[in-house]
Each structure stands twice: as structure tokens, then as C-alpha cells.
Amino acid sequence: MGCAMTLFPIIGEAASLVQKVRKTPTNSLAIVSQAMELMEQLRQWQVPSRTMFEQPEDLTSEIQHSIQTAEAYRHAMLLYLHQAVPEIPSEPSEALARKALMSLASVPLTSRAIIVQIFPLLAAGCEMMAEEDRHWVANRWDSMLLRLKIGNVSSCMKVVQEVWERRDKFEGDKAERTMRRLQARGIPNGDFVPPMLNPGKRKAHTTEAATEEAFFGGALNDGGVDQESRPPKAARRVTFDSNGAAGVTINGPMTQRLPSPGLPRQIDEVVVNQLEPEYTVRGKLHWLGVMEDWQWE
Predict the structure, then answer these.
(1) Which of the pair, 231 or 293, is modelled with greater confidence?
(2) What is the pLDDT of residues 213-272, one digit of tens each?
(3) Residue 15's CB: how many other CB atoms inside 10 A?
(4) Alpha-helix runs per DSSP H in the chain
(5) Which H or E element spans position 247?
């Protein structure tokens, strides 16, 4: 992991800050400021040139495997910081977790690099909601356990499974309470499906605008351009948070580009994405909360 020698000092500072957060009831201005600086360092960090590293002697490993593992750590730490200081604009938890797991998935199980992948698999694996994704995470733990044969791997796997169970119950209870409130208001069971919020997210008021004309009140059509001749436009999703601030997300075909070396990274979706308290590092639905309950810290 020599390719991450400049990344691990940032990770160490971030981990220390998270421990500080867990000892305080709320995040101070100093904590938010320090977290913002660390997040920006993690976002802009890039792997040094591959020409600086020699090919590993282990024939099962490649330089690219270490690079992908470093990227998994980077996204896992961004997720960790977001869960500690959700006041800072960030990509959603699931998006950061998926990026970390995508990096891990690109490393074959035969590679020696998997022996240092415990933390990103733990931090990101807990965020998976789909059964298929959870199955992949569980299989990855099984494969890692066969390779390492140490108790830490088995313990981490149990923590992830406990987080899944707690979150499933939490979301199920929340949906049931929502249904009971709707029934109390006289809404028939079959006539309404309650919206499912993404796990851990604050409630938001949303409205859909299918075109730019719908969102801007038709002002863009003043020039007399034939609407039928225009190319189809991406849908916009306008989100209003509890403070009345609005954000616009364009839902349409996107082309992903790899960042050019030496250029600042582009952040896909950075929004103020407040988490419910139980999903933060202080909560019982976080893997740190499980470890604390089990006295495994």
C-alpha cells in the first residue's frame, strides 16, 4: 500500500476526529471546520504516478489492486466523516459506500491486497440495502475469512449483519408508524403508498419538473423556438430542505469521465444531507454503536 502513503495520515486525522465527535453531544464549529478541511483533502487526493512503484513480487497482486484498495479507503473515510459531521455538504451515504465497494469489487479475491480491505468493507458494507448487494458483501467476508483465518474478520462480519438487522427493523417500524398515521386521517389502505425515505435521511419536500419550461414557468419558450424540434431534456428534481433551501438534481443520461491526472476531482452530488441521529457515529444503527453495545470497541 505504498501508493497510499500520503493518504493514511489524512485517514489517521479523520479517525481521531470521529472519536472526538463521539465524546461530545453536538458538533462544535471547530469540529465542523476541521472535518470540512479533511473532507476536502480526501476529495482531492489522487494516487501518485504508477511509474513511482515497482511491480509486487507476489504474482497474484498488481499495482492496480493497491490503487483500487486505496480508493476504497478514500471513499470509506469520506463516508465515515459524513456520518460523524453530517452538517457538511456531502454525497449521500449509499453513494459513497457504493463507490468504496466498487473499488473493492475490482480487486480479485486471489490478490494479496484483500488482506488490508477490512475497514472499507465494514464501513461501506453496512450501508447496503438491496439483498443482492448484501449477499455480495457477505460472500466477500467469507472469502476474506478463508484467506486470513483471523478472528477480526469473523467479528466484523457479525457486526455488519447486526447493523442490517437493526436498520431493517428501524425502517420497518417507521413505515408502520407512517401507515398508522395515514389510517388515522381516514386514508384507505389501498389508495396510498407511503413514500420510503432513503435510510438515515432527513425528510425533504420535493417536486418534479419534467422539463426546463415546467420548472421556470415557460420563460425559456419566449424565443418562439419550436418545442418539437428541441432535443429531449433531462428531468429535474427540486429538493427543499427544512430551511427552505432548494437544490436541483438533473435526472437524465450521464457520461462518467475519469479525472485527469493533476486536475481537481469533480464531486458527483454534494448536498447538505443531514442524517437521522441513529445513523450517525453516535447512533445505535451505526457499526460503532453495535461495537459499543457488544463492548467490542
Answers:
(1) 293
(2) 433 344 444 444 444 444 444 444 444 444 444 444 434 443 344 444 455 555 555 655
(3) 15
(4) 8-22, 29-44, 63-84, 93-105, 118-125, 131-148, 151-184, 212-215, 287-293
(5) strand 246-251
Quick one: cell of 70? 486505496
Give the residue ranges of DSSP H helices in 106-234: 118-125, 131-148, 151-184, 212-215
Which of 273, 289, 280, 208 is CA-nearest to residue 241?
Answer: 273
The three-point CA angle 154-157-163 to 5° equals 145
* Per-residue CA distances from 190 to 148, 181, 183, 193, 194 (Å): 51, 14, 11, 8, 11
Sheet-wide strand order for 205-209: 205-209, 235-240, 246-251
Question: For the whole model, what pTM was predicted?
Answer: 0.71
Closest CA to 248 of 216, 296, 287, 280: 216
Q: Per the structure block, which three cell numbers stand in for 296?
A: 467490542
Tell me the pLDDT tens digit for each residue of 41-69: 999 998 876 666 666 666 666 888 889 99
End-to-end C-alpha distance for the chain, whole angstroms: 25
CA angle 261, 264, 267 (to 5 degrees): 120
75-78: long-range pairs with CB below 8 Å, 24+: 75/99, 75/100, 75/103, 75/120, 75/124, 76/100, 76/119, 76/120, 76/123, 76/124, 77/10, 77/11, 77/14, 77/15, 77/42, 78/39, 78/42, 78/43
Residue 110 cell numbers, joined: 486471489
pLDDT of residue 200 exceeding 70: no
In terms of pLDDT, which residue wins out, 275 or 186? 275
Where do we find the cell 453495545? 293
Check whether 281 has a pLDDT greater than 70: yes
